[in-house]
Structures are given as C-alpha cells and as structure tokens.
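Input chain follows. Return structure tokens only.
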Amino acid sequence: MTRDERITQAVQDMLIELMRAEHIHPIWPGVGHTGDHVWAAAVTNEENGELTQAALDYQAHGKGSVAHMKREAIHLGAMAIRFLVNLDAVETQRINESARQELSDEHNVYVYPQASEGLSLNESEWRDEQPSYRLHNYTEGMDANA
C-alpha cells in the first residue's frame, strides 16, 4: 500500500468513526449547553490519553497490539475532526449565551432564545446576524404593592 493509499484509508476510517460517534453521542460538548471549548477539548484529549495508554501497553508492557493503537488513533482523529467541525457552533453558543445574559441583566428579564436561533451559523453569519430573542419580564403581572 502506498503512502497516499494509507492516508486515504486513515481518513476514511476516521470519518466512519466520526459518524459512529455522532450517532452514539449526538450532542457535542458545548453545543446545546453553555459554549465550552475546554469541555470539547477534554473529550478529544481523553482519546489522546487512550492512544498513549495503548502505546505504553504495547511498547513498555508487552501487551496490547498495533491494531489497538490504530483503533485509538482513529478515535483520536475522529474526535479532532469533530472538535474542528463544531468549533464555530460552540463559539456561537457561547456568544449567544453571553448576549442573553447581558440582556437579562440590563433589563431585569430572562431572555429565551427563539427556536429559529440555530447553532449552524458559520463564523461569517454569526458576525453579520443579530439573533432574535423573546423577553420575559420577571415583574410582569406582579402587584406593585406586594
């Protein structure tokens, strides 16, 4: 197998693992929660630790296999791809959370994101578009004399 063929095979293996992981764990850390790059990086780093452990087991302890190291490297590559693919979505989520908090603090309201506010915006879109919000005033309907 040539080097180019090995690269093609490695990328294909990572993409298959990426699809499998997204099926098992459809929500990436930070997307759908508070935007959190550290949490997303920790998931990727966990795979790096598993690859390192597989290499140590094989080389230093005489157990494990090259196939196990390959599987762990594929997992790491898939999570690195997932980290990169979701980076803009996590940042958009983080920015939107910050904007909601600022509106809430400034106007004594809780800001609900509209259903149309998505995490699929790419970087150029979230810079150009203002997300829509629905405000809920905590004091609305309360007796002023209470």
